UniProtKB/TrEMBL annotation:
<dbReference type="Pfam" id="PF01545">
    <property type="entry name" value="Cation_efflux"/>
</dbReference>
<keyword id="KW-0472">Membrane</keyword>
<dbReference type="GO" id="GO:0006882">
    <property type="term" value="P:intracellular zinc ion homeostasis"/>
</dbReference>
<dbReference type="InterPro" id="IPR058533">
    <property type="entry name" value="Cation_efflux_TM"/>
</dbReference>
<dbReference type="GO" id="GO:0005794">
    <property type="term" value="C:Golgi apparatus"/>
</dbReference>
<feature type="domain" description="Cation efflux protein transmembrane">
    <location>
        <begin position="125"/>
        <end position="323"/>
    </location>
</feature>
<keyword id="KW-0812">Transmembrane</keyword>
<feature type="transmembrane region" description="Helical">
    <location>
        <begin position="295"/>
        <end position="315"/>
    </location>
</feature>
<feature type="transmembrane region" description="Helical">
    <location>
        <begin position="155"/>
        <end position="172"/>
    </location>
</feature>
<dbReference type="InterPro" id="IPR002524">
    <property type="entry name" value="Cation_efflux"/>
</dbReference>
<dbReference type="GO" id="GO:0005385">
    <property type="term" value="F:zinc ion transmembrane transporter activity"/>
</dbReference>
<feature type="transmembrane region" description="Helical">
    <location>
        <begin position="192"/>
        <end position="214"/>
    </location>
</feature>
<keyword id="KW-1133">Transmembrane helix</keyword>
<dbReference type="GO" id="GO:0016020">
    <property type="term" value="C:membrane"/>
</dbReference>
<dbReference type="InterPro" id="IPR045316">
    <property type="entry name" value="Msc2-like"/>
</dbReference>
<dbReference type="InterPro" id="IPR027469">
    <property type="entry name" value="Cation_efflux_TMD_sf"/>
</dbReference>
<feature type="transmembrane region" description="Helical">
    <location>
        <begin position="125"/>
        <end position="149"/>
    </location>
</feature>
Length: 404
Protein backbone atom coordinates (compact mmCIF):
# COMPACT_ATOMS: atom_id res chain seq x y z
CA UNK A 1 0.00 0.00 0.00
CA UNK A 2 2.78 2.42 0.83
CA UNK A 3 4.51 1.79 -2.47
CA UNK A 4 1.30 2.38 -4.42
CA UNK A 5 0.70 5.63 -2.54
CA UNK A 6 4.22 6.84 -3.38
CA UNK A 7 3.83 6.00 -7.06
CA UNK A 8 0.45 7.78 -7.26
CA UNK A 9 1.91 10.86 -5.66
CA UNK A 10 4.85 10.70 -8.07
CA UNK A 11 2.51 10.64 -11.09
CA UNK A 12 0.37 13.51 -9.84
CA UNK A 13 3.13 15.90 -8.84
CA UNK A 14 5.66 15.74 -11.66
CA UNK A 15 5.03 17.82 -14.80
CA UNK A 16 5.50 16.47 -18.28
CA UNK A 17 8.05 17.67 -20.80
CA UNK A 18 7.32 18.65 -24.39
CA UNK A 19 10.28 18.13 -26.75
CA UNK A 20 9.07 18.57 -30.32
CA UNK A 21 10.60 21.76 -31.70
CA UNK A 22 11.32 23.77 -28.55
CA UNK A 23 12.88 23.16 -25.16
CA UNK A 24 10.33 24.15 -22.58
CA UNK A 25 8.57 22.76 -19.53
CA UNK A 26 4.82 22.97 -18.97
CA UNK A 27 3.57 22.84 -15.42
CA UNK A 28 0.03 21.65 -14.68
CA UNK A 29 -2.04 23.18 -11.92
CA UNK A 30 -1.13 21.42 -8.73
CA UNK A 31 -3.40 20.53 -5.86
CA UNK A 32 -2.73 22.16 -2.48
CA UNK A 33 0.14 20.41 -0.70
CA UNK A 34 -0.81 18.06 2.08
CA UNK A 35 0.40 18.60 5.63
CA UNK A 36 2.36 16.06 7.56
CA UNK A 37 2.22 16.38 11.30
CA UNK A 38 5.59 14.84 11.95
CA UNK A 39 7.63 17.07 9.66
CA UNK A 40 5.53 20.11 8.79
CA UNK A 41 6.18 19.70 5.07
CA UNK A 42 3.86 19.15 2.15
CA UNK A 43 5.67 16.39 0.27
CA UNK A 44 4.41 13.07 1.61
CA UNK A 45 6.99 11.13 -0.40
CA UNK A 46 9.79 12.79 1.57
CA UNK A 47 7.98 12.19 4.84
CA UNK A 48 7.41 8.56 3.98
CA UNK A 49 11.02 8.00 3.06
CA UNK A 50 12.29 9.49 6.31
CA UNK A 51 9.61 8.33 8.77
CA UNK A 52 11.08 4.95 9.63
CA UNK A 53 14.53 6.14 10.71
CA UNK A 54 12.98 9.04 12.62
CA UNK A 55 10.70 6.89 14.76
CA UNK A 56 13.40 4.32 15.35
CA UNK A 57 15.70 6.97 16.76
CA UNK A 58 12.86 8.42 18.84
CA UNK A 59 12.27 5.07 20.55
CA UNK A 60 15.87 4.86 21.71
CA UNK A 61 16.07 8.53 22.67
CA UNK A 62 15.86 7.75 26.36
CA UNK A 63 18.75 5.35 26.17
CA UNK A 64 21.32 7.51 24.35
CA UNK A 65 21.35 10.62 22.13
CA UNK A 66 21.13 10.36 18.35
CA UNK A 67 24.60 11.84 17.75
CA UNK A 68 26.82 10.07 20.24
CA UNK A 69 30.06 8.18 20.14
CA UNK A 70 29.83 4.56 21.13
CA UNK A 71 32.53 2.02 21.78
CA UNK A 72 33.33 -0.17 18.81
CA UNK A 73 32.12 -3.74 18.95
CA UNK A 74 35.18 -4.94 17.05
CA UNK A 75 38.11 -5.85 19.29
CA UNK A 76 41.57 -5.55 17.72
CA UNK A 77 44.30 -7.56 19.42
CA UNK A 78 47.01 -5.37 20.85
CA UNK A 79 49.79 -7.33 19.25
CA UNK A 80 48.44 -6.74 15.76
CA UNK A 81 47.82 -2.98 16.06
CA UNK A 82 51.41 -1.99 15.39
CA UNK A 83 51.58 -4.22 12.33
CA UNK A 84 48.43 -2.63 10.94
CA UNK A 85 49.87 0.87 11.34
CA UNK A 86 53.17 -0.15 9.79
CA UNK A 87 51.40 -1.72 6.84
CA UNK A 88 49.30 1.43 6.43
CA UNK A 89 52.39 3.65 6.34
CA UNK A 90 54.00 1.27 3.86
CA UNK A 91 51.01 1.41 1.55
CA UNK A 92 50.82 5.22 1.87
CA UNK A 93 54.46 5.47 0.84
CA UNK A 94 53.81 3.22 -2.13
CA UNK A 95 50.81 5.36 -3.08
CA UNK A 96 52.91 8.54 -3.15
CA UNK A 97 55.52 6.90 -5.36
CA UNK A 98 52.77 5.59 -7.62
CA UNK A 99 51.20 9.07 -7.93
CA UNK A 100 54.55 10.55 -9.01
CA UNK A 101 55.06 7.81 -11.57
CA UNK A 102 51.49 8.20 -12.78
CA UNK A 103 51.90 11.97 -13.32
CA UNK A 104 55.02 11.40 -15.44
CA UNK A 105 53.30 8.67 -17.44
CA UNK A 106 50.27 10.92 -17.93
CA UNK A 107 52.40 13.77 -19.30
CA UNK A 108 54.27 11.41 -21.62
CA UNK A 109 51.03 9.90 -22.90
CA UNK A 110 49.62 13.41 -23.44
CA UNK A 111 52.72 14.39 -25.43
CA UNK A 112 52.56 11.26 -27.57
CA UNK A 113 48.85 11.74 -28.23
CA UNK A 114 49.41 15.35 -29.27
CA UNK A 115 52.28 14.38 -31.58
CA UNK A 116 50.08 11.72 -33.16
CA UNK A 117 46.68 13.44 -33.42
CA UNK A 118 47.09 17.05 -32.31
CA UNK A 119 46.64 20.08 -34.51
CA UNK A 120 49.37 22.55 -35.43
CA UNK A 121 48.93 24.97 -32.46
CA UNK A 122 49.05 22.06 -30.01
CA UNK A 123 52.26 20.70 -31.53
CA UNK A 124 53.84 24.14 -31.51
CA UNK A 125 52.91 24.63 -27.87
CA UNK A 126 54.41 21.24 -27.02
CA UNK A 127 57.70 22.25 -28.69
CA UNK A 128 57.64 25.54 -26.76
CA UNK A 129 57.12 23.72 -23.46
CA UNK A 130 60.05 21.40 -24.18
CA UNK A 131 62.30 24.39 -24.97
CA UNK A 132 61.30 26.18 -21.76
CA UNK A 133 61.77 23.05 -19.64
CA UNK A 134 65.24 22.45 -21.09
CA UNK A 135 66.27 26.08 -20.60
CA UNK A 136 64.89 26.33 -17.02
CA UNK A 137 66.61 23.07 -16.05
CA UNK A 138 69.95 24.29 -17.40
CA UNK A 139 69.51 27.65 -15.66
CA UNK A 140 68.67 25.96 -12.35
CA UNK A 141 71.74 23.71 -12.53
CA UNK A 142 74.05 26.62 -13.36
CA UNK A 143 72.54 28.73 -10.59
CA UNK A 144 72.97 25.98 -7.99
CA UNK A 145 76.55 25.22 -9.01
CA UNK A 146 77.62 28.87 -9.18
CA UNK A 147 75.60 30.04 -6.18
CA UNK A 148 73.67 32.67 -8.16
CA UNK A 149 70.35 33.22 -6.41
CA UNK A 150 69.02 35.29 -9.31
CA UNK A 151 69.42 32.41 -11.74
CA UNK A 152 67.68 30.00 -9.37
CA UNK A 153 64.80 32.43 -8.86
CA UNK A 154 64.39 32.96 -12.60
CA UNK A 155 64.48 29.19 -13.17
CA UNK A 156 61.59 28.70 -10.71
CA UNK A 157 59.69 31.48 -12.47
CA UNK A 158 60.11 29.72 -15.81
CA UNK A 159 59.12 26.37 -14.28
CA UNK A 160 55.87 27.81 -12.98
CA UNK A 161 55.21 29.33 -16.40
CA UNK A 162 55.82 25.92 -18.00
CA UNK A 163 53.19 24.47 -15.68
CA UNK A 164 50.63 27.00 -16.89
CA UNK A 165 51.51 26.32 -20.52
CA UNK A 166 51.10 22.61 -19.85
CA UNK A 167 47.64 23.29 -18.41
CA UNK A 168 46.80 25.20 -21.59
CA UNK A 169 47.94 22.24 -23.66
CA UNK A 170 45.87 19.89 -21.51
CA UNK A 171 42.81 22.12 -22.00
CA UNK A 172 43.32 22.08 -25.77
CA UNK A 173 43.40 18.30 -25.75
CA UNK A 174 40.47 17.68 -23.38
CA UNK A 175 38.19 20.26 -25.03
CA UNK A 176 38.04 18.09 -28.14
CA UNK A 177 35.98 15.50 -26.25
CA UNK A 178 32.25 15.39 -26.82
CA UNK A 179 29.61 15.99 -24.18
CA UNK A 180 28.74 13.07 -21.92
CA UNK A 181 26.28 12.30 -19.14
CA UNK A 182 28.32 14.15 -16.51
CA UNK A 183 29.57 17.14 -18.51
CA UNK A 184 26.44 17.73 -20.56
CA UNK A 185 27.75 20.96 -22.09
CA UNK A 186 31.08 19.40 -23.06
CA UNK A 187 34.60 20.48 -22.13
CA UNK A 188 34.94 23.66 -24.17
CA UNK A 189 34.81 25.91 -21.12
CA UNK A 190 38.04 24.39 -19.84
CA UNK A 191 39.87 26.53 -22.40
CA UNK A 192 38.23 29.65 -20.96
CA UNK A 193 39.44 28.60 -17.50
CA UNK A 194 42.94 28.05 -18.88
CA UNK A 195 42.99 31.52 -20.44
CA UNK A 196 41.79 33.05 -17.16
CA UNK A 197 44.55 31.24 -15.24
CA UNK A 198 47.21 32.51 -17.64
CA UNK A 199 46.01 36.10 -17.37
CA UNK A 200 45.89 35.86 -13.59
CA UNK A 201 49.52 34.71 -13.54
CA UNK A 202 50.53 37.57 -15.85
CA UNK A 203 48.78 40.11 -13.60
CA UNK A 204 50.71 38.72 -10.66
CA UNK A 205 53.93 39.04 -12.67
CA UNK A 206 53.07 42.66 -13.46
CA UNK A 207 52.55 43.36 -9.77
CA UNK A 208 55.83 41.65 -8.84
CA UNK A 209 57.71 43.74 -11.42
CA UNK A 210 56.23 46.90 -9.95
CA UNK A 211 57.38 45.83 -6.47
CA UNK A 212 60.83 45.03 -7.86
CA UNK A 213 61.00 48.48 -9.46
CA UNK A 214 60.08 50.09 -6.14
CA UNK A 215 62.74 48.02 -4.39
CA UNK A 216 65.34 49.09 -6.96
CA UNK A 217 64.38 52.72 -6.38
CA UNK A 218 64.91 52.40 -2.62
CA UNK A 219 68.06 50.28 -2.82
CA UNK A 220 71.39 51.51 -4.21
CA UNK A 221 71.62 50.48 -7.86
CA UNK A 222 75.38 50.10 -7.70
CA UNK A 223 74.86 46.92 -5.68
CA UNK A 224 72.78 45.20 -8.36
CA UNK A 225 74.32 42.28 -10.24
CA UNK A 226 74.29 42.41 -14.03
CA UNK A 227 75.10 38.76 -14.72
CA UNK A 228 71.44 38.10 -15.61
CA UNK A 229 71.86 39.74 -19.02
CA UNK A 230 73.01 36.44 -20.60
CA UNK A 231 70.02 34.64 -19.08
CA UNK A 232 67.68 37.37 -20.28
CA UNK A 233 69.02 37.19 -23.85
CA UNK A 234 68.59 33.40 -23.98
CA UNK A 235 65.11 33.62 -22.49
CA UNK A 236 64.19 36.31 -25.02
CA UNK A 237 65.23 34.11 -27.93
CA UNK A 238 63.16 31.17 -26.62
CA UNK A 239 60.10 33.35 -26.07
CA UNK A 240 60.39 34.96 -29.50
CA UNK A 241 60.00 31.49 -30.98
CA UNK A 242 56.72 31.18 -29.07
CA UNK A 243 55.59 34.61 -30.26
CA UNK A 244 56.26 33.56 -33.84
CA UNK A 245 54.31 30.31 -33.29
CA UNK A 246 51.20 32.23 -32.15
CA UNK A 247 51.75 35.44 -34.11
CA UNK A 248 48.15 35.42 -35.43
CA UNK A 249 46.90 36.07 -31.88
CA UNK A 250 49.38 38.84 -31.01
CA UNK A 251 46.70 41.49 -30.65
CA UNK A 252 45.06 43.18 -27.67
CA UNK A 253 41.38 43.50 -28.61
CA UNK A 254 40.90 40.20 -30.39
CA UNK A 255 37.43 39.03 -31.48
CA UNK A 256 36.83 35.60 -29.96
CA UNK A 257 34.65 33.39 -32.12
CA UNK A 258 35.49 30.13 -30.33
CA UNK A 259 36.89 29.04 -26.97
CA UNK A 260 40.14 28.02 -28.68
CA UNK A 261 40.78 31.63 -29.62
CA UNK A 262 40.89 32.64 -25.95
CA UNK A 263 43.32 29.88 -25.05
CA UNK A 264 45.62 30.61 -28.00
CA UNK A 265 45.52 34.32 -27.21
CA UNK A 266 46.45 33.67 -23.56
CA UNK A 267 49.42 31.53 -24.62
CA UNK A 268 50.56 34.27 -27.00
CA UNK A 269 50.24 36.90 -24.26
CA UNK A 270 52.18 34.64 -21.88
CA UNK A 271 55.23 34.33 -24.11
CA UNK A 272 54.90 37.97 -25.24
CA UNK A 273 54.91 39.20 -21.62
CA UNK A 274 57.98 37.06 -20.87
CA UNK A 275 59.68 38.52 -23.95
CA UNK A 276 58.92 42.08 -22.83
CA UNK A 277 60.23 41.25 -19.36
CA UNK A 278 63.49 39.87 -20.79
CA UNK A 279 63.86 42.86 -23.11
CA UNK A 280 63.32 45.22 -20.17
CA UNK A 281 66.04 43.49 -18.14
CA UNK A 282 68.46 43.67 -21.09
CA UNK A 283 67.74 47.36 -21.63
CA UNK A 284 68.13 48.12 -17.92
CA UNK A 285 71.49 46.34 -17.79
CA UNK A 286 72.76 48.21 -20.83
CA UNK A 287 71.64 51.58 -19.47
CA UNK A 288 73.22 50.84 -16.10
CA UNK A 289 76.45 49.97 -17.88
CA UNK A 290 76.33 53.35 -19.64
CA UNK A 291 75.84 55.10 -16.31
CA UNK A 292 72.19 56.12 -16.64
CA UNK A 293 70.66 56.69 -13.22
CA UNK A 294 67.40 54.97 -12.21
CA UNK A 295 67.46 52.94 -15.42
CA UNK A 296 66.26 49.74 -13.76
CA UNK A 297 63.37 51.53 -12.08
CA UNK A 298 62.27 53.06 -15.37
CA UNK A 299 62.54 49.83 -17.40
CA UNK A 300 60.80 47.60 -14.84
CA UNK A 301 58.05 50.17 -14.38
CA UNK A 302 57.43 50.36 -18.12
CA UNK A 303 57.39 46.57 -18.41
CA UNK A 304 54.91 46.30 -15.52
CA UNK A 305 52.51 48.82 -17.05
CA UNK A 306 52.82 47.27 -20.52
CA UNK A 307 52.05 43.75 -19.29
CA UNK A 308 49.10 45.04 -17.29
CA UNK A 309 47.62 46.84 -20.30
CA UNK A 310 48.09 43.77 -22.52
CA UNK A 311 46.43 41.33 -20.13
CA UNK A 312 43.47 43.26 -18.71
CA UNK A 313 41.10 42.94 -21.74
CA UNK A 314 41.41 39.15 -21.81
CA UNK A 315 41.16 38.98 -18.01
CA UNK A 316 37.86 40.89 -18.07
CA UNK A 317 36.44 38.79 -20.89
CA UNK A 318 37.28 35.41 -19.38
CA UNK A 319 36.17 36.52 -15.93
CA UNK A 320 32.83 37.68 -17.33
CA UNK A 321 32.23 34.31 -19.01
CA UNK A 322 33.13 32.34 -15.87
CA UNK A 323 30.85 34.58 -13.78
CA UNK A 324 28.06 34.07 -16.36
CA UNK A 325 27.53 37.72 -17.12
CA UNK A 326 25.23 38.91 -19.88
CA UNK A 327 27.24 38.72 -23.13
CA UNK A 328 28.61 42.08 -24.31
CA UNK A 329 27.27 41.30 -27.78
CA UNK A 330 23.70 41.61 -26.43
CA UNK A 331 23.06 45.14 -25.08
CA UNK A 332 20.75 45.63 -22.13
CA UNK A 333 18.52 47.91 -24.20
CA UNK A 334 17.82 45.06 -26.63
CA UNK A 335 16.91 42.74 -23.76
CA UNK A 336 14.54 45.35 -22.34
CA UNK A 337 12.92 45.76 -25.74
CA UNK A 338 12.36 42.01 -26.04
CA UNK A 339 10.92 42.00 -22.53
CA UNK A 340 8.36 44.66 -23.47
CA UNK A 341 7.43 42.88 -26.69
CA UNK A 342 6.79 39.60 -24.88
CA UNK A 343 4.75 41.32 -22.19
CA UNK A 344 2.58 42.98 -24.84
CA UNK A 345 1.71 39.57 -26.26
CA UNK A 346 -1.89 38.52 -25.62
CA UNK A 347 -2.15 35.93 -22.86
CA UNK A 348 1.18 36.70 -21.15
CA UNK A 349 0.73 38.11 -17.65
CA UNK A 350 4.25 37.99 -16.21
CA UNK A 351 7.89 37.29 -17.10
CA UNK A 352 10.32 36.18 -14.39
CA UNK A 353 13.73 34.58 -13.92
CA UNK A 354 15.11 35.84 -17.24
CA UNK A 355 18.79 34.82 -17.36
CA UNK A 356 21.22 35.04 -20.28
CA UNK A 357 24.88 34.08 -20.24
CA UNK A 358 27.69 33.01 -22.55
CA UNK A 359 28.72 29.40 -22.18
CA UNK A 360 31.75 29.84 -24.43
CA UNK A 361 32.49 32.55 -27.00
CA UNK A 362 29.88 32.32 -29.71
CA UNK A 363 27.35 30.24 -27.74
CA UNK A 364 24.73 32.20 -25.76
CA UNK A 365 22.29 30.37 -23.49
CA UNK A 366 19.12 31.79 -21.95
CA UNK A 367 16.18 30.78 -19.79
CA UNK A 368 13.03 32.52 -18.65
CA UNK A 369 9.68 31.76 -17.06
CA UNK A 370 6.34 32.91 -18.52
CA UNK A 371 3.03 33.11 -16.72
CA UNK A 372 0.17 32.55 -19.16
CA UNK A 373 -3.56 32.91 -18.67
CA UNK A 374 -5.29 29.66 -17.91
CA UNK A 375 -6.92 28.13 -20.95
CA UNK A 376 -4.61 29.87 -23.46
CA UNK A 377 -2.73 27.91 -26.10
CA UNK A 378 0.94 28.50 -25.26
CA UNK A 379 2.40 27.18 -28.54
CA UNK A 380 2.08 30.43 -30.55
CA UNK A 381 3.54 32.36 -27.59
CA UNK A 382 6.51 30.00 -27.37
CA UNK A 383 7.14 30.23 -31.10
CA UNK A 384 7.13 34.02 -30.89
CA UNK A 385 9.49 34.11 -27.87
CA UNK A 386 11.97 31.68 -29.41
CA UNK A 387 12.07 33.57 -32.69
CA UNK A 388 12.45 36.92 -30.93
CA UNK A 389 15.43 35.89 -28.80
CA UNK A 390 17.02 33.85 -31.59
CA UNK A 391 17.15 36.99 -33.73
CA UNK A 392 18.83 38.71 -30.77
CA UNK A 393 21.66 36.16 -30.77
CA UNK A 394 20.56 33.56 -28.20
CA UNK A 395 21.36 30.13 -29.66
CA UNK A 396 19.78 28.04 -26.91
CA UNK A 397 16.67 29.19 -25.01
CA UNK A 398 14.64 27.32 -22.39
CA UNK A 399 11.15 28.65 -21.65
CA UNK A 400 9.02 27.48 -18.76
CA UNK A 401 5.29 28.27 -18.80
CA UNK A 402 3.00 28.51 -15.78
CA UNK A 403 -0.73 29.06 -15.83
CA UNK A 404 -2.23 31.86 -13.74
Amino acid sequence: MANSRVSDQHDSRFPYLKSQSFHYHKLEAESPPSWNADFGIGDRRLAFSRQTSFHQSAENDSVKPMLSRTASSIDIPQGEGGNVFREEKFFLGEEKVWEEKFSVVLFVSLALRIIRSGNRPMRRLLVLIFLNVAYSTAELCIGLLSGRIGLVSDAFHLTFGCGLLTFSLFAMDVSRKKADRIYTYGYKRLEVLSAFTNTLFLLFMSFSLAVEALHAFIQDESEHKHYLIVSAVTNLLVNLIGVWFFRNYARINLVYRKAEDMNYHSVCLHVLADSIRSAGLILASLLLTLGVKNAEVLCLGLVSVTVFMLVMPLFKTTGGILLQMVPPSIPSSALSKCWRQVMSREGVTEISEARFWELVPGHVVGSLSLQVMKGMDDRPILQYVHGLYHDLGVQELIVQTDYA
